[in-house]
Amino acid sequence: MRPGFAARLRDLRSGRASLIVDLGSDIGSRDWLRGAATCLALCLSALALSPGGETEAPVPAPLSDAQWEEARALSYAPLAFGGDTGRRMAATKAVEALTETPERPRIDLNATLGRGDTLADVLRRSGVSRAEADQVASLIGGAIDLSDIKAGIGLNVTLGRREARNMPRPLESLAFRARFDLKLAVARQNGALTLERTVIAVDNTPLRVQGVVGSSLYKSARAAGVPGSAIQSFLRAVDAHVSVGSLGANDRFDMVIEHRRAETGETETGQLLYAGLDRAKGKDLQLLQWTQGGKAQWFEASGVGQTSGLLQRPVPGAVSSNFGARRHPILGYTRMHKGLDFRAGHGTPILAAADGRVTRAGWAGGYGRQVRLNHDGGLGTSYSHMSRISVKPGQSVRRGQVIGYVGSTGLSTGPHLHYEMYRGGVAVNPASVKFTTRAQLRGGELANFRARLRSLLATPVGGAQIAQKTP
Ligand SMILES: [Zn+2]
Description:
The structure is a single chain. This protein is α+β, with helices and mostly antiparallel strands. Among the domains are: 107-199, Nuclear Transport Factor 2, Chain: A (Roll), CATH 3.10.450; 207-308, Roll (Nuclear Transport Factor 2, Chain: A); 319-432, Glucose Permease (Domain IIA) (Distorted Sandwich). The chain has helices at residues 5-14, 30-49, 65-73, 77-80, 119-125, 130-141, 217-223, 228-239, 443-457; strands at residues 107-112, 154-159, 171-179, 182-189, 192-199, 202-203, 207-212, 252-262, 267-278, 285-292, 295-300, 304-308, 319-321, 324-327, 334-337, 339-343, 349-351, 356-363, 369-374, 379-389, 396-397, 402-406, 416-423, 426-428, 437-440. The strands form five sheets. Strands 13, 16, 17, 18, 19, 20, 21, 22, 23 and 24 form a ten-stranded antiparallel sheet that branches. Strands 6, 7, 8, 9, 10 and 11 form a six-stranded antiparallel sheet that branches. A five-stranded antiparallel sheet has the order 1-2-3-4-5, with helices on one face. The longest helix is centred in the first third of the chain and has 20 residues, at 30-49. Bound molecules: zinc ion. Zinc ion binds next to β16.
């Protein structure tokens, strides 16, 4: 029976009737002859199909020295070495010099108001004459307070045709967003500069975001669209009342944040106005930002303000080692631990515990990078093992000001803050030093405060609601 095509293919594949044969074995057998014939046939066909004759690659003639110099002068290499040939590619006779180049009739440009810049500075930089820049600045100064214009805003400047080349171009128009709610335009009409104000309608409804704390309040709030700075304010406000570490996954946060929407579509997010906690266990918290005596601070719903005079916690972390005798983790023997160790990640900002003056800022042996502050009442504090110091000796610092960042310099097993406190130069237990005075709102102010709180809490929830899985 004739084998089918598939069977023959199988035979070929398996090598039983293959054209491809191992020519090293069974020399002289039928299979070997077939294989040798195949090999020969393939070699012959390759020869037969190869293009006849020889293909020659042109070999360039070697350059003479003069030709080589010429070629090199035209290449990039001399430029890279700073034009070492001394050649200059001059224009040929085919190029005719113009007696006068035409000038653009007008120039449109965008200028940016830098930090520390005045409006007149930017205009002068853009090519406006000093007299005109001052004139425009005073024109705008008559409409708004020039210091209200924030650094970073862009100005659209149009300069017109000038009469001669040795004089500045006249300002044709200037337009910019002077404030979030105001656009200003200066235009030249019949030779004189006039100012046009365009008020942009702004909706000031604050943004309210609520959510479940979940595994991390920071992450949950970020996921709900709260800006990082507002979350930091929230944590700082809440920290004075409850330990942030004690928040449960089912606790809910409630934030009201300053928010402005312009009719032109831009939004601007400002400060945190209200911080609320709805706790599964433990007391709920309602904090409202309120300005009393020119100083903004957080007040509880009852009208009780922040404890002031109390020392600021230098970092938010937990205390990992207390004041007293302990076995030193590196030196191995028992000695006095003259401060508190705060657990904190590398790079966490360290805040001054109270207003004071920097007495030293630098390396202090086993303490690593250290900052020492002197405060009123013979009190002093020191902050050690910092990764980075951001104050200088002699500088005054405010309570809560960042003076450096957590690190692990000096004799330290890992990033933490070693915090010491001195009274009359003697180390004392920082946990024992407390001053407590609290502001209390009364009467009409308390009524206003309550009304403000009610109105903020009437804000509809605007942020994306998040459904956080609870562990
Ligand atoms: Zn320590």
